[in-house]
Amino acid sequence: MASDLAIIKRDVALANRILADVGLASGVLASLGHASMRLPDDPTRFVVKGRGYILDALAVMQPDDMVVCNLDGFKVEGRSELTPPSEVKMHSCIYAQRSDVQSIVHVHPRFTVVMGILQSQLRPMCLEGMHLVNQPLPVFESPRLIVTEEDGRQVARTLGDGPAVLLQGHGAATVGSSLEDSFMTMFQLEEQARMNWYAYCAAGPDHAFTTPDKVAEHALARQLIREQAHLKPETPRAGRREPGGVWAYLTHLASSEMDG
User: Fold this and answer.
1) Tally of CA atoms within 13 A in the half-sphere of 153 that contains its CB
2) Cβ of 100: how many Cβ atoms within 10 Å?
3) How far is Cα of residue 130 from the mean position of the Cα atoms in its chain?
4) Which residue has the higher pLDDT, 129 or 239?
5) CB atoms within 10 A of CB 203
6) What per-residue string of b and e applies to 157-177 under the rule 16 or more CB within 10 Å gives b?
7) Which one of 37, 182, 227, 255 is separated from 201 by 20 to 30 angstroms, measured CA to CA?
8) Crossing angle of the two packed helices 179-203 and 4-21, in degrees rounded to 10
9) What pTM, to 2 d.p., does this model score?
10) Whether the Cβ atoms of residue 92 and residue 70 lie closer than 8 Å to each other
11) What is the pLDDT of residue 233?
12) pLDDT in tens, 29-55
């Protein structure tokens, strides 16, 4: 039976593969970015992809390519030839500041990058992730790599208690209570950025968008779903919440790829 650490390494490797599968880390971005997850039984440590293997691409990550790091960004477990990723301080400093965060994703999505330069305030344009951009996202105003402790702390301070921070010219970092949560936040952030790009091209920087009151209407409708008698399952699910449909499907595909 696999150990808890082995399961987490596999889950983080799958999350990295999924980032590639959906285009957030493919093509020229194939080796750029990383997902991480805090160890449930030791919140001072987390699993993230290592650095130093020959085939450095998220699409082919394996559990053995993962390393365990502490909140100072040092590797404490993993293959001897592997080091932490160059921007491990982004992860370690956010985990140190935010005890509620269990997972972090950092990638360089194209639409998020370009709209972070053209129009740093993304506006709600479609249902998928509209809550993320209903208020302006914080921006770390430099494209430099986050390699020092001070830069890591500054990214964490800029993030604050929110779910995402834009890194100007350098993508974004998203956080969550699970790998699914941090991934879906990034996936939906990029979708909002894509829709902002379409609107920007069609109508210019002053394009129309979904207003806060309409976003609130949508949020209320989602809450009402649980109260509708005709939508209640005949046999209620027991235990923890099941993964969402998108994440469950993408995990299934990535698992099939990893296991051959």
Assistant:
1) 4
2) 8
3) 16
4) 129
5) 10
6) ebbeeebbbbbbebbbbbbbe
7) 182
8) 10
9) 0.94
10) yes
11) 84
12) 999 999 999 999 999 999 999 998 666
* Parallel, antiparallel or unpaired: strands 75-77 and 66-70: antiparallel
Encoding tokens for residue 23? Answer: 């285009």
Token pair listed for 25:
């880390």
Q: In this structure, what token pair is assigned to residue 134?
A: 């209903």
Residues 6 or more apart in contact with residue 207 via CB below 8 angstroms: 123, 196, 199, 200
To which residue do tokens 């790599």 refer? 145
Q: Which two tokens mark 129? A: 């992730």
**3-state helix/strand/coil string of the chain:** CCCHHHHHHHHHHHHHHHHHHCCCCCHHHCCCCEEEEEECCEEEEEEEECECCCCCCHHHCCHHHEEEEECCCCEEECCCCCECCCCHHHHHHHHHHCCCCCEEEEECCHHHHHHHHHCCCCCCCCCCCHHHHCCCCCEECCCCCCCCHHHHHHHHHHHCCCCEEEECCCCEEEEECCHHHHHHHHHHHHHHHHHHHHHHHHHCCCCCCCCHHHHHHHHHHHHHHCCCHHHCCCCCCCCCCCCCHHHHHHHHHHHHHHHC
> Domains (ranges, CATH) in the chain?
4-259 (3.40.225.10)
Which of these, 107, 103, 96, 105, lies nearest to 74 by C-alpha position?
96
Q: Is residue 238 predicted with pLDDT exceeding 70?
A: no
